[in-house]
């Protein structure tokens, strides 16, 4: 009993979902890089998600993959499925016995779907938000989830949310396809909490900073030294000169905070990392 969106931009594939159901991210999203994304919901049968991905991996288009999968399910009229393959083919299925309001919207490279919703405006708002939001796929998915919630969402209330986006080699240090994978399993405001965690994920793991948002190390050396000293990483009196000891202290701090993914190899610091350091030192 859920609202979700599955989508691709031709490179990334992903699912965003929210529900008055504990840990919805454990059951609804099924995603494979360079293959596609599937949401299995209502009286969810997660086996269908795995089967649909397997079929799409073989080159079967999203619609045929869903139709072949649900044909094997004797309770298919209780199922709701959204699927998109990596080529952008999208298809939605809403069984006739899914509790009202239940329905879906299929657009270019996405399906917005839900059941036990406040009304059709939920999936319509999700579709509009996805189509109009600027940015990467993850930004569009989160915007769609927010829009669905604002339009009424799951009419029983709120409990959990999740977003999964895969990109070939796009994850941590290029060693995984997991670009974003966040779950909020039980929270009074799950979509807002999901967005809060995503901001931390973005700062820590995503390399998509504005290339203009940088500061020169030589220009902020004293301020950084003072911040690192307050945090216990720089032991000397600040000199205002970015030397080897300052670089080591900065890298030690970044590693401690899990920001190794954001260390540059030049004479600059990402503005987002610099601001986080200064703010953290003021809280210490």
From TrEMBL:
Pfam families associated with the record: DUF1028 (PF06267), PG_binding_2 (PF08823)
Coiled-coil ranges from the UniProt annotation: none
Residues of the Putative peptidoglycan binding domain: 204-277
Entry-linked InterPro entries: DUF1028, Ntn_hydrolases_N, PG-bd_2, PGBDSf
Protein origin, superkingdom: Archaea
Annotated protein name in UniProt: Major pilin protein fimA
């Amino acid at each position: 009993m859920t609202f979700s969106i599955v989508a691709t931009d031709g490179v990334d594939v992903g699912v965003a979902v929210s529900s008055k159901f504990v840990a919805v991210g454990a059951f609804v999203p099924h995603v494979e890089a360079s293959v596609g994304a599937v949401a299995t919901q209502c009286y969810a049968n997660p086996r269908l998600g795995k089967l649909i991905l397997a079929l799409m991996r073989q080159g079967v288009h999203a619609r045929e993959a869903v139709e072949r999968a649900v044909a094997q399910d004797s309770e298919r009229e209780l199922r709701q499925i959204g699927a998109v393959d990596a080529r952008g083919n999208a298809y939605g299925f809403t069984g006739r016995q899914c509790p009202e309001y239940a329905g879906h919207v299929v657009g270019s490279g996405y399906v917005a779907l839900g059941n036990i919703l406040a009304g059709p405006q939920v999936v319509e708002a999700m579709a509009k938000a996805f189509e109009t939001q600027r940015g990467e796929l993850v930004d569009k998915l989160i915007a769609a989830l927010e829009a669905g919630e604002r339009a009424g969402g799951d009419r029983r209330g709120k409990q959990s949310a999740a977003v999964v986006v895969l990109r070939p080699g796009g994850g941590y240090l290029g060693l995984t396809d997991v670009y974003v994978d966040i779950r909020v399993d039980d929270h009074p405001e799950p979509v807002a909490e999901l967005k809060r965690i995503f901001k931390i994920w973005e700062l820590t793991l995503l390399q998509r900073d504005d290339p203009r948002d940088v500061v020169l190390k030589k220009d902020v050396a004293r301020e950084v030294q003072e911040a690192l000293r307050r945090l216990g990483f720089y032991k000397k009196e600040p000199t205002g000169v970015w030397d080897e000891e300052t670089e080591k202290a900065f890298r030690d701090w970044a590693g401690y905070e899990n920001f190794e993914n954001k260390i540059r190899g030049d004479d600059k610091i990402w503005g987002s990392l610099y601001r986080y350091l200064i703010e953290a030192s003021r809280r210490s």
